[in-house]
Amino acid sequence: MFDSVTIKNFRGFESVVADGLGLVNVIVGDNAVGKTTFLEALYLLSSQSPEKVFSIRAWRDMDPNLSSETFESGEIWEDVFYRFREDVDIFIDGKGSHNRSLRIGRLRERAVSLVEGVHYANIMFTWTVADGKEYECIPEKHDKQIRFPNLPPDAVSGALLTANILTQNLADQFSKLDAANEAGDLIRMICEHWEDVQDLKILTKGEGKGTLCASLKSLDRKVPLGLASYGLNRLLYVLVTIASFPDGVVYIDEIDTGLYYERLPDVWGLIYKLASSTRTQIFATTHSGDAVDALLPVIRDHEADFRLLRITKELDTPTIHVVKGKALAAAIASHGEVR
Q1: Which of 181, 242, 302, 317 has the fewest Cβ atoms nearer than 10 Å?
Q2: Angle CA(62)–CA(110)–CA(100) in degrees, nearest 5?
Q3: What whole-number distance in Å separates Cα of residue 134 and Cα of residue 250?
Q4: Is residue 273 within 8 Å of 233, Cβ to Cβ?
Q5: For the chain, what percent of residues have pLDDT higher than 90?
Q6: Where are the alpha helices (DSSP H) in 245-263?
């Protein structure tokens, strides 16, 4: 787990610190204060390759493709720097059982290759892992192929989930859990809390990839989960991802997307039950007051595991306020504004 995080010169953050983090961390705040940026910074820190920069560009509907032109110019990297100020290094540091840091900086002089056809990017990614060892990676272009040498051997296991459900990823992860006899509890959890669902199975046609399907009480046939309900599909996507990364970290953007407000207490209960059993740390953003209010029944019995991270911005400077479980429960119960 990450107990504290420091982020400097990354996108909208010049310098922020979040200390005293918990197992389940709910991130709130106005638009454009940095909720998603916070998830992205931690996701990059947890990773082991600069390639994840392309992933977060894709999540923001920005061109994720690395062409020869953007590689040579360095344009593909510039938006990760605070206010595009590439003269100041990015620094992301996490303390806790996942103890690691990441520094991203422009090279003062472009590295020159002695090998024909090999070119280096004008940027370096440096991971420092728990044992203090540093791994410096300067991306390379070999003709049209991009390579990332000298990467750290391990990443912090986990995933970042957006509102876009990656259906095949969900089916593949569910299949792996099922093959390891670890899907039964998930199926029971869904059937107990989603009244119309009787069972979940992977169906395969011919040699094609499998589709995750639900058996419904209201129909005499199995249907693809996405056809049954977006909310159900979204909830299972979150739960399957948590179950797939024990002792890891799962980042969820807009956790309440597609879920009816009356289901949210049960949703939080399921997420906490699974996260506590797998010791998977959760960071989840929301704009919804209903989603925050729905935390109360779960927090009351597990105050030590919950945190609310409220990001505010004054004079264009973001600050992260960490509210611990007992104070959070009291604020929700008294109908205080915690968003």
Answers
A1: 181
A2: 65
A3: 25
A4: no
A5: 73
A6: none
Query: Could you report the per-residue pLDDT of 59-115, keeping only the tens digit for each?
Result: 888 876 666 666 766 778 889 999 999 999 999 999 999 999 999 999 877 666 666
Instruction: Report residue 318 as tokens.
Output: 């973001």
Which residues are paired to 8 by β-bridges?
15, 91
37 vs 17: CA distance, rounded Å: 13
127-130 CB contacts, 8 Å cutoff, 24+ apart: 127/48, 127/100, 127/101, 127/102, 127/151, 127/152, 128/100, 128/101, 128/102, 128/103, 129/99, 129/100, 129/154, 130/98, 130/99, 130/100
- The total of other beta-carbon atoms located within 10 Å of residue 197's CB is 21
The answer to whether the CB of 47 falls within 8 A of the CB of 137 is no
Tokens of 324: 């611990």
Instruction: Compute the distance between CA of residue 242 and CA of residue 185 in angstroms, rounded to an integer.
Output: 13
**And the tokens for 178?**
């099922």
**Distance (Å) of CA 265 to CA 69, 272, 273:** 49, 11, 12
**Tokens 């510039």 sit on residue:** 78
Tokens of 106: 């422009």
Both tokens of 10, joined, read: 């990354």
pLDDT given for residue 113 in this prediction? 62
Nearest CA to 127 among 145, 146, 150, 152?
152
Instruction: State the first-to-last Cα distance of the chain, in angstroms, to the nearest integer.
Output: 24
Q: How far apart are CA 93 and CA 117, in angstroms?
A: 35
Token pair recorded at residue 92? 């992301």
Q: Return the H-helix or E-strand segment holding 215.
A: strand 211-216
Q: What pLDDT was estimated at residue 144? A: 75
| Residue spans per domain, the chain | 45-154, 165-230
Question: Residue 282 pairs with which residues in a beta bridge?
Answer: 24, 250
Q: pTM for this structure?
A: 0.93
